[in-house]
């Protein structure tokens, strides 16, 4: 399904539900269902700053039974699902008790069954603590459990392959569909860094943006469910985002409209990726990593998903595509010379697999 995820933390659910009903109805007319977030960590849960911000509610949100009060109000208003945001693991704070969380998830599933057909429960966790991740997969039946494998990967083919494999294996082990994001839910800044200084985003601004576009294009080809933050679709960096939500929404809408008619723009690429993803039914397709292609160097990542070969050039040199290659999309422009296409470094390209086999 296509959905929009919102966190109306300043909404008083006892007196201001007309606005959320209107939003849900408007989204529905655009073919979108609405998932409402009712909690979630406000900062990193991994890295050197993990224990500095362990709170998980903000605005008018409350913990405990207030979570269920808010979730029921949103479901009654027509929400298609409830999201708990980033769960602070018990390894980071003693306030988190997995058994208590499981009890709340059980009650949340009960609410969902009462109000919504095929509803969604979602949350974010870290793969750094696999025992907690497995608990949520096995005991809590979270439909969309997003881990941070793509957030914590390094910029090389081996690291990306390892992180993808681990996430796919963990979800498959419990029969859960994989669910992806490539950036943390919170603002990514120097003092909110969930990594160790060696992750893919730990580079200068311009290089970070190219890597983000490449990872986003790669993620859009993965099986399962995908989550993009507001602004990712137009390549808006966190440093350039307004702090006021309405200002951010206005900026994103303005840039999205401008980019929609620009061939190869971030917004146009995301839109085309969604079209190709639907055409090939990539959400339900098996994935296999590919090595040994004569034209693809070992330092570049390649994987096959149904009829699409995805190449992520993590090397320092251009990848020369076979003359017959049919390009479906690319995260940035490809160079052409003497009838051959070159995939620049820090670029993801989708190819029609039959043309490059």
Automatic annotation (TrEMBL):
Which Gene3D superfamilies does the record associate with it? Glycosidases (3.20.20.80)
What InterPro entries does UniProt report for this protein, alphabetically?
GH
Which protein, by its recorded name, is this? Answer: Glycosidase
């Amino acid at each position: 399904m296509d959905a929009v995820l919102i966190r109306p933390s300043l909404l008083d659910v006892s007196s201001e539900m007309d606005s959320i009903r209107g939003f849900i109805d408007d989204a529905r007319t655009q073919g979108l269902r609405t998932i409402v977030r009712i909690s979630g960590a406000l900062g990193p849960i991994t890295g050197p700053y993990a224990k500095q911000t362990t709170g998980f509610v903000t605005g008018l949100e409350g913990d405990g039974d207030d979570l269920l009060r808010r979730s029921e109000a949103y479901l009654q208003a027509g929400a298609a699902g409830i999201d708990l945001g980033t769960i602070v693991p018990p390894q980071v704070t003693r306030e988190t008790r997995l058994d208590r969380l499981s009890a709340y998830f059980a009650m949340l599933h009960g609410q969902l069954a009462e109000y919504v057909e095929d509803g969604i429960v979602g949350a974010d966790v870290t793969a750094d603590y696999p025992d907690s991740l497995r608990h949520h997969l096995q005991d809590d039946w979270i439909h969309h459990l997003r881990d941070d494998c793509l957030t914590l990967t390094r910029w090389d083919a081996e690291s990306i392959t390892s992180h993808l494999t681990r996430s796919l294996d963990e979800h498959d082990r419990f029969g859960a569909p994989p669910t992806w994001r490539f950036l943390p839910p919170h603002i990514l800044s120097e003092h909110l860094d969930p990594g160790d200084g060696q992750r893919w985003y730990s580079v200068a601004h311009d290089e970070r943006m190219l890597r983000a576009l490449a990872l986003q294009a790669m993620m859009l080809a993965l099986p399962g469910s995908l989550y993009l933050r507001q602004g990712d679709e137009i390549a808006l960096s966190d440093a350039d985002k307004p702090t006021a939500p309405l200002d951010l929404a206005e900026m994103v809408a303005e840039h999205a409209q401008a980019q929609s008619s620009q061939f190869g723009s971030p917004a146009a690429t995301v839109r085309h990726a969604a079209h190709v993803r639907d055409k090939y039914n990539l959400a339900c397709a098996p994935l296999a990593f590919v090595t040994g292609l004569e034209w693809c160097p070992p330092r570049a990542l390649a994987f096959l998903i149904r009829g699409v070969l995805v190449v992520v050039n993590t090397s320092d040199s251009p990848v020369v595509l076979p003359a017959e290659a049919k390009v479906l999309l690319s995260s940035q422009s490809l160079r052409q010379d003497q009838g051959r296409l070159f995939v620049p470094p820090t670029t993801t390209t989708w190819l029609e697999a039959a043309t490059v086999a």
